[in-house]
Amino acid sequence: MRLPVYAATAAGRGAMTSLDGGVLPSSGDTCITATISNGQACINLPILGQKCISVPSWIPSGTLASLCAKLCTTGPLPTGACVTATVAGKQVASECFGRC
Predict the structure, then answer these.
(1) How many domains does the chain divide into?
(2) With a threshold of 0.70, does the pTM exceed it?
């Protein structure tokens, strides 16, 4: 099952932007760029809605992070997603939402 992915920065929680034509496949990662704000990076996941992951306090607000999401499924149904945050090529945070 392929669902659209939307991204939102923590600073602009109401303004979401679409990952142009992007989909969250049942295998592999889909990545977007988000801006760190107040120690968090946020992504809007299909079915689960907007989710934010905390990043280390040494990362200043305004820093760009790559957020990669991998969909978790039970059979053909999505049950959750795991998200990793990478800054300057280094993974700084990871969190799963729903059932993974």
Answers:
(1) 1
(2) no
